[in-house]
Amino acid sequence: MRPRILIFSLAAMLAACAQTTTRSVATPAAEEPAQPAWRSIAKPEDATMLDGLDEIWSTGLAFATEHSPAKVKAEGAMIEPGAALDHPALPPGSYRCRVIRIGRYADKSGFKSFPPFFCHVKSAGPDQLTFLKQTGTDLPSGWLYPDGDKRYVFLGAQQDEPGDNSLAYGRDRSRDIAGFVERVGPFEWRLVVPHRDPDGLDIYALTPVPPNQQPD
């Protein structure tokens, strides 16, 4: 009798197992990384232009190198597309800002360097920086937004008067400016602004000004 009882018990257990519903464990969906804040502010045309900056830069630099190789070589990492380093945030304070224009937009030489002027960076809170060109004829002013480990995005506008910052990005499309800020060496940064033509770009070479040489 005992073997029959064991067989019956085993059969009952197998039947019970067969009726058990297998439950699948739900896998939570992976969260998409948050978009940088600047993408919700930038106009679509500017975002597209910044996303395609590598091509604009390469084309402009190739033209400048063909027609002004010695001048291009003298600038070194300041105008090299792949020279960006970590820690791109500009420390608040005054800077000398020298504009280097490359590409067909510059002139037939593909390269033009302007005298240095003064710019100023101000902190408005954690990861909140403003940039203002204080002297010269081109007077960009705007905000700097973090964008990864190697750059900030600049969104601003050309102002009417030195020291003015009343015209905000997005109010007058003809005067809007978009670009990248990158660190390229010890105490060396650059603001790279592509032209909308797009036949070139302006590179603002930025170096801190000693306190005793800062403008009033």
Write out key terms for the chains shown.
alpha+beta; 32% strand; DUF4893 domain-containing protein; signal; DUF4893
What does this structure look like?
- The protein is an alpha+beta fold.
- It has a single domain, classed as Lipocalin, CATH 2.40.128.
- Helix content is 22%, strand content 32%.
- Strands 1-3-4-5-6-7-8-9 form an 8-stranded antiparallel barrel.
- Strand 1 and strand 2 form a beta hairpin.
- The longest helix has 18 residues.
- The model has no long low-confidence stretch (mean pLDDT 87).
- Pfam families: DUF4893.
- InterPro entries: DUF4893.
- It comes from Stakelama marina.
- Keywords: Signal.
- This is DUF4893 domain-containing protein.
Question: Outline of this structure?
Answer:
This protein has 216 residues and is of the alpha+beta class. The chain is 22% helix and 32% strand.
What is the alpha-carbon Rg in Å?
Answer: 29 Å
User: For the terminal residues, how far apart are their CA atoms?
Assistant: 108 Å
Strand percentage: 25-35%
At the first level of CATH, the class is Mainly Beta
Mean pLDDT: 87
CATH topology: Lipocalin
Give the strand order, joined by hyphens, for the main sheet. 1-3-4-5-6-7-8-9
| Category from helices, strands and their pairing | alpha+beta
